[in-house]
Write a structure and sequence with these properties.
Low-confidence stretches: 219-296
Pfam families: Mob1_phocein
Order of helices and strands: HHHEEHHHHHHEEEE
Keywords: Metal-binding, Zinc
InterPro entries: MOB_kinase_act_fam, MOB_kinase_act_sf
Number of strands: 6
Number of helices: 9
Mean pLDDT: 73
Structural class: alpha+beta
Strand content: 5-15%
Strand order of the largest sheet: 1-2-3-6
Amino acid sequence: MSSGTEIIRRNRPGTKREEWCQWPDEVFDEVDTVLAVQQIIQQMIRKDFKNVDAILTEPQGQDLGVWKYEHLRQFCMELNGLAVLLQDHCTPETCAQMTATEQWIFLCAAHKTPKEACPAINYTRHTLDGAACLLNSSKYFPSRVTIRDSSLAKLSSVCRRVYRIFSHAYYHHRSLFDQFEEKTALCQRFTVFVLKYNLMNKQNLLVPIAGADIEEVTSADGGSGGGSEASEATTTSDTANVNSSGMSTGLCADQANLSSGVGYRVTRQFSMIGCLLSAAIRPIQDERSTLGFLLI
């Protein structure tokens, strides 16, 4: 190939498996396109998907907001692979609700009223569709070169929702989760990512990851240890943190229903459900014996 030959960095129709993405690596500073960050992230993943630290290390001088945004886009694209893997095993009959451990049930916000009875596979599709809608929104993310702080505040909300897909797969479809994780290390990378950039509270991370000090949830009293008193203290603290942040949770202008994704933890003694009203948490009474709070 002569030095003057243009390198086409895309897979044309009919590309063979062994030739897929087989083009020379690029140096970040020499990439002349608004998709430079996406291309470098994907290049690092192809090079060694298990080298999480290298993949998540931003190039010198790179805008951190754009870096986080592009990584989250990439996570959502790759998570579609897990959704496809689950669809023949995670059915409305086998998984009538979106749950992780026995302590967590997630309400689907893609309905006019947040819905508990949305099957897990539908919840997965709704969550990925909502995330794609937001991350491709010209209203919130009109540029992939610079991003407003007000738009960056929405990334945490997306992270919390899409992480529930990992949680459900780990606790209810372990063999499929392990199969997918072995080929992608996606949950490991996502966990390190959200901890590195403070996009999720550590106590909301339910899938154990080596080196991240996250243990598997096994007891009926929750993953943070202790009984109902510990759960009550944890919940109160989480509610206060969300309340004080004032973070907007809307996903799309045309999908405002997605702005109130809810999860609640089952315990024995309390009856409260967290609801989002004008970015504030207001407890309401419920007949079920639950202690609830919003996971934004």
